[in-house]
């Protein structure tokens, strides 16, 4: 019996519906991981719901101000599984908010990763907060095995770009942000992994850059959304391949 509930192959992309912790050990090692990993969310100092959360996106809970909270798994288990799903020499980008940077870094180092850099995405439009409005999200740039220079060594830590959502996914990320990471740490034909693909922004970036993609999503609605976006990406022009990586100052729209 397979560990996934459904599998879709679209071009060079293979998408799995199911729990990443169960599916990752069964996959061939990938060349790169780029993922907005799940973690508990709170806003404006309002504490999150006291409901017990288990599994990855296994349930949708809400804080008492109506903010959606995603169920998650402990970072140590998550990062160990990602580490094991990558080739012996591979880069890894995982996104986190300010409250989760330190525990996620600690888990990554204990899993065997080494730390390259802390990158930042300026969303331009801030999230309200009583202790400074939040306009930044962070990305841990990690590596496994042999360290390699990125394809564009002039790329900067900070990426600026809007957050115009085009899907109903609550934590959708811009394709150009994910394309910056994919373009800098992989080659055409490489396999890019996102074990928590959501609306598949990383997958769309991989398609646009001529990479293959392996994505996992536990929510059936978001899985269908991801399949639709990947199919649409193959019908669109290969817009990034001729000028990769993305211009950090003009990434513009969101995905």
Automatic annotation (TrEMBL):
InterPro entries: DNA_methylase_N4/N6, RM_Methyltransferase, SAM-dependent_MTases_sf. GO terms for biological process: methylation. One of its GO terms (molecular function) is N-methyltransferase activity. Residues 31-226 form the DNA methylase N-4/N-6 domain. It catalyses: a 2'-deoxyadenosine in DNA + S-adenosyl-L-methionine = an N(6)-methyl-2'-deoxyadenosine in DNA + S-adenosyl-L-homocysteine + H(+). The keyword Transferase applies. Belongs to the N(4)/N(6)-methyltransferase family. This is Methyltransferase. The lineage of its organism: Bacteria, Pseudomonadati, Pseudomonadota, Alphaproteobacteria, Hyphomicrobiales.
């Amino acid at each position: 019996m397979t560990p996934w509930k459904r599998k879709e192959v679209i071009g060079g992309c293979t998408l799995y519906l199911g729990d990443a912790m169960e599916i990752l050990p069964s996959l061939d090692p990938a060349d790169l991981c780029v993922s907005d990993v799940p973690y508990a969310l709170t806003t404006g100092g309002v504490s999150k719901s006291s409901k017990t959360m288990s599994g990855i996106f296994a349930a949708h809970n809400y804080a008492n101000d109506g903010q959606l909270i995603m169920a998650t798994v402990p970072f140590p288990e998550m990062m160990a599984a990602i580490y094991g799903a990558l080739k012996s020499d591979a880069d890894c980008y995982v996104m986190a908010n300010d409250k989760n940077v330190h525990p996620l870094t600690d888990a990554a180092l204990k899993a065997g990763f080494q730390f390259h850099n802390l990158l930042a995405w300026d969303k331009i439009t801030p999230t309200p907060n009583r202790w400074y409005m939040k306009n930044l999200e962070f990305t841990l740039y990690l590596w496994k095995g042999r360290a390699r220079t990125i394809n564009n060594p002039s790329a900067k830590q900070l990426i600026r770009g809007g957050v115009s959502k085009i899907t109903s996914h609550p934590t959708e990320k811009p394709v150009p942000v994910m394309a910056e990471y994919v373009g800098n740490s992989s080659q055409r034909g490489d396999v890019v992994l996102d074990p928590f693909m959501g609306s598949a922004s990383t997958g769309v970036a991989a398609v646009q850059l001529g990479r293959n993609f392996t994505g996992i999503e536990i929510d059936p609605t978001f899985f269908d959304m991801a399949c639709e976006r990947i199919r649409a990406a193959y019908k669109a022009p290969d817009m990034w391949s001729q000028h990769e990586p993305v211009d950090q100052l003009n990434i513009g729209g969101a995905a």
